[in-house]
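haha ok so turns out i had the wrong file open the whole time. this is the CORRECT one, sorry everyone. sequence first:
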Amino acid sequence: MTELVRAAEEAVVLSGADPARAREHARAVLAEAEAGGCAEAVSVAHRALALAAREFGHLTLAAEHLGRAVEAARDLPERAAQARLSLVTVRADLGDPVGALRVADLAEGHLTGLDPARLGVQRAVALIQLGRPEEAVAHCDRAVARLTGAGDPRFLAGALLNRGIAHTYLELYDAASRDLSACVTTARQAGLGHLAALAEANLPFVATRKGDIPGAFAGYRAAEKALSGYPERLAAMRADFAEALLAAHLPGEARALLGLAVPDLAAAGAQVALAESRLLLAQVELLVGDPHQARTTAELAAGELTGQGRAAWVPLAAETALRARLAVERPTPELLAEVRALAARLATDGWAGPAAGLRLAAAELAVELSDRAAADAELGLVTSGEPATGRTHRVVRHHAVALQRSLRGDRPGALAALRAGLVEATEGSERLDDPGVRAHAVRAGERLADFGLSLALADGRPETVLGWAEHWRAMASGRSGEPLAIDRLRAALGDAVLIETVRHGDRLAAVVVTRERCVLRPLGSYTAAAEATIRLRYGLRRAGLRDTGARNGVAREAERLAAGLLGPLAGDIADRPAIIVPTGALHTLPWPVLPPFRGRAVCVASSANAWLTTPPGRPGFVHDDVRPRVAAVAGPGLEHADAEAAMVVRTHQGASGTAVRVGAGSSDVVEALGGSDIVHIAAHGTFCARSPLLSSIALDDGPLMAYDLLRLGRTPGLVVLSACDAGMAHAPVDGAPLGLAGAFLERGTACVVAGLVPVRDEEALTLMTLFHGLLASGHTPAQALATASEKTGVPGFACFGSLGQPISLPKG
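then structure:
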C-alpha cells in the first residue's frame, strides 16, 4: 500500500471523529494522488470526502464523490465495492432505499475481511426506511458479533445505533435504550464524539415513542447543542423533537419546529427524512384543527413515500388523510368500511399502535351508526393479542376496554378502565417543571377524561360527577393522589358554597357543594356562556375607557350571564361566600361583576381539592402575636402608582404589621416576594394568551415574567396585583390555569387579588385604598375586595386561590 493510500484511509477513519479535519486532509491527499496518477488513492480520498460531506448534510455532494470513487476504482473491484458500501446509506437518505439495497448487492461479492459486516450495518439503514426493522436487526446482530473486539469501533458503534433505531420501531424500547447507550460508550471511548452525539440524539426519540415526554424534552435540549454544526442532522433531530412536542399536545410548537426542519432537509436532499417530516406535519395540522390542509399534506407525503418504495409507511399517511376526512364527513357505512380496512392494513404492516387507534375510531364510528356488531369486533381486536408496549397504544387499549364495558352497561368497570388509562396518559407529567408543558402533556388523556365525564353525567349523581372532574383536574395539575374527600370538603366549607363547573361537548353543568348537601344542576350551553363572557369583558374594557354607553351594556350583559349561570343555582347558593371552580373560557369571566355576587366574598380556584388543601394562614396570614410583613411596589409609567404604594405602607405600618416601600427593580421585587407576608404591586400588567407564562408585570429594569415567579423558593401568602389583566388565565385543560395569578398559586401563595380587565389608574387607587383599609381592620381579602368594589363602583378585580384569612392585629 502506498503512503498516499494510507493517508487517504486515515481521512476515512477521521471522518467519524472530526469531519472538518477529515475533509481538509482528504482534499490534500486527492490533489497529490491526482497529480501522481494513483487511482487507488484517488478513490479512497473521494470516499473520505463523501463521508465528511454526508456528516455535514451535503448528501448530493456525498453521492457525487462516491460516484467518482467508483469510477476511479474501475480496475480495483474491492475499492469500488467499498465506495458502494458507503453509497448505500447516502442513496437511502436521498430517497431511494430500494436502490440502496441494489447498490449493496453489487458491492457484496467483492468485499473481504470486516467489510461484509460493515455492509450489513449500511443495509440496516435502508431496511429500516423500508419498514423492515426485523431484517435490520438481524443484519446488525451479525455485524455486532463480527465487529466486537475486531478493532473497528466506528462500525461497531454504527451497528449498535442502527439496531437501537430498529428496536424502537419494533417497540422494544428497553433493548433500544441499551443499544444506544452502548453506542455512546463505544463511540466515546474511541474518540468518536460526533457518532456519540448522534446516538445521544436518538435516546429522546426512544423516550418519545415510549411515552416518556420529560425524558424526551431533556434529551433533545442537549442534542440540539451537540448537533448545531451539522444542519441536516440537526434538521432530522428537530423533526424528531417535533414528534415529541406533538405527543405532548404542543402542536403550535411542533409546527414551528417543522418550519425550521423541512427547508433544511429539502436543501440537503434528505428525501426520506423530508417525507417523514411531511407526514408529521399533516398530523400536526389535523391536531390544530385544519383537516383540509392535513389531508393535502398527508396525500403529498403518501406520494413521496410511494415514490421511495416505502410501501410499509404509506398506510400511516393514509391514516392521517382518513382521520382528516372523519373530521369533516358525515358518518356512513361506506366510511366505516374504509376505516376498518385501513386499520387491518396497518396491523398487517406492523404498525400495532396506529392500528389500535384507528380500530378504536372505527368502533366509535360504528356506535354512532348503531352497528353494534362492528363496534364489538373492532374493540375485540384492540383489547386482545400481545400486550401493548408504547404509551399511546396502552392508552388506546384502556379506552377500548372502557368503551366495551360501557356498551355492556358496566359503568363502574368503564370508569375503572378510564382511570387506569389516565394513569398511563399522564405518567411522568409530575416530573415536568414547566406547568405549561405539563398542562399540555397531560392532554394525551383528554379523550379519556371526556368519556369519563360523559359516563359520570349519565350516572346523574353529583358526587360521581364531582369526583371524576376532580380526579382529572388533579392529574392535569401534576398532583394526582387520593380521591377528593367530599365529606371533608363539606365540613371545611363552613357557611360558604363551592360551585364547580364542568362541560361535555356544549353541555355546561355545575356541582354545588355546601355543608348540608351536594347537587348537580344543568346550566345550558357552554358556547353561549363563553360568548357572553367575551361580550362582558369587551363592555368592561369600553367602560374603562370612559365610553359613555358602555356601563349600561355591561349591566345588561352581566344580568343575562348571571341568569344563565347563577339563576339555576339561586336556591342552592343563597347569600353564602362562594368558591368558583371554572371550566374553559369561564376562567376569564370576572365573576364578582355578576349581580348575585356583587358585595359578596368570592374567590376563583383551580379545583375543589386545590382550595381544600390551600394552607389557611401560612405563610402570609399570621398568628395574633406576629405582625405581618407588608411590601409595596410602584411600577413605572403609572401616574398614581407612587401614591398607591405609599398608601399601602401608610395603612399597614404599625396598625396591622410592618410595611415598607421597595424598589421596582427585578431584584428588589424578587427579594420582597421571598421575605414578605403580603406584597402589593401597582404596575402595568400584560397577559399573553398564546403563551400565558410569558405574561408579565412591568418593572423599572424590564418585565417580571410569570416564568420568573416559578423559580421563587418562597412566595407571600397574599399577593395583590393592581395591574390590568394580571388575573387572566388560559387553561389548556381544566385544573391547570396558566398566567400570573396561577404562577403565584403554583408556588404556594394562598390568595392572589388581581385585575381581569383594564382599570384606570386613579380608579385602582380609589379601590385599593378602601381594600387595604378593610384588610387592615380585620376583613378577609375576599370580603375586603367585595366591599371595596361595591362601594367604589370599580369592577374587574377578583380573588384567586382562596377567600383568604384576616390579618390578625398584634396583641396588646
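DSSP finds 36 helices and 14 strands in the chain.
again sry for the mixup
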